[in-house]
Amino acid sequence: MLYLIALFITIVVVCPISIYLAIGKVKDNKKDKKSNVLFNATQIERNVTEEEIGDIVDYLSRHNQITYLVDEDQLQAKVESIESDDEEDEIFEEVAIYAVRNNIGSSNRLMQVFNISFNRITTGAVVYAVEDEYQIVFSSSTEGRAWVEIDGERYFDNYNGVNRTFTKIHKVSVPMNVLNEAKEYEIHVQKVTYRGPFGGYFGRDISQEYKFRPANASDGIEYYSISDIHMAGKPSAKTVSYFDNLDFLVVAGDIVSMMDSFEDANLTNIYSHEMTKGEIAVIYARGNHELKGDYAEEFHNFVGTYNDKFYYNVWLDNTYITVLDIGEDHDDNYWEYYDTCDFNEYRNRQLELIRSELESKEYLNYDYRLVVCHIPLPFVNARHNHFDFKKDVTTLLNQMDIDMVISGHQHDLLVFEP
Question: Kindly report the CA angle at 267 between 206 and 322, in degrees rounded to 5?
Fold first, then answer.
């Protein structure tokens, strides 16, 4: 019987219990907020009364906060057949009995014993445009698997053939032409409670639906660019709300000041989602402040990249865009970096990319040509940082008849005319 009761616990997410001061015998628990006690072991008898069970069952039923780790058919095959008018209440009843009888009196203890938690989408979709695909990024409150669904086709957050499950940040690649035609999509997350060698348990499929408007350059392009807001994104979000028909959003780096935590790394997505609502594409260029802190080396999982690199081309309708990444704003041997930077080869590969584009001449097929780079390419400071690279890259780009170079970094309005 104990085995079956434990199985019920793994089948049902009992997080609502953790916020419920259940039954009259726990009124004194408010005095001890630090322990988060829900069931007072010194007051609860081993024989649980029907009134106590009823209170918990009633609360859980009214709030309708259960999550199955298997579907209903699997669930029915696993549990004992109990005649009841409400099978969900029977499951709630087993949860209540087990929790009370075993004195599992706090949400922390429940989490430790059963590894349970309530999952939800914490950051809505951001559609990054990279090469000829969209990379749709969103986050969840617990680790799990994720996918995007377009016209019934599912695209998973996949790493080298494995659908990722041990992550709260999800990046799903979908073909650009597929989403452009469908103009709508869904994002899905599903908690994985157990991933074993021959099977596993999944939580409820949590989803959100979005409309999408692809860029349309038939009458010109309209975009909004932000950079260097350093964690103060509300004014930018307010400003972008005044534009109705943007073709895309340009995020040109230094959205944060440091990358010390998951929350820091995810802030770009929080602001980008607030500005786009997941309905238009985002072009992202990394800033030098996204290179500072523990999460700098994990940041490629949070935003649009090409083979984990922050430089790439993008083709949006009749618009050709090259995204470049100088890296840090000083030379690699600058004392501030204490041997954590080595960007020379990384920059040289970007020169190779532009040379290959010049040879292919594909850019000639587009009426609008943009470059996005956080650190201004035509501007050389008094220390002459990156002088050779800037000279070489501007010489190459000038051969492509670029219409506009969008940058940030200087915290000032600088206009360089050709």
Answer: 100
φ/ψ of 188, rounded to 5, equals -135, 140
- Would you state the torsion angle of the CA atoms of residues 401, 406, 412, 417, taken in this order, to the nearest 10 degrees? 10
Residue with tokens 């949590």: 206
Count of Cβ atoms closer than 10 Å to residue 151 Cβ: 10
DSSP assignment letter at 395: H
Alpha carbon distance 317, 399 (integer Å): 22
Residue carrying the six token digits 């951001």: 126
CA–CA separation, 230 and 194 (whole Å):
38
The span from the CA of 352 to the CA of 358, in Å, is 10
3-state secondary structure 15-57: HHHHHCCCCHHHHHHHHCCCCCECCCCCCCCCCCCHHHHHHHH
Q: What percent of the chain has pLDDT over 90?
A: 52
- 350-355-360 Cα angle (round to 5): 125
Give per-residue pLDDT as tens, 234-288: 888 888 888 889 999 999 999 999 999 999 999 999 999 999 999 999 999 999 8
**Neighbour count for residue 235 (Cβ, 10 Å):** 10
Kindly report the backbone phi and psi dihedral angles of residue 154, in degrees, each rounded to the nearest multiple of 5, phi listed first: -105, 130
Q: Which stretches within 183-261 are classed as H helix? A: 234-240
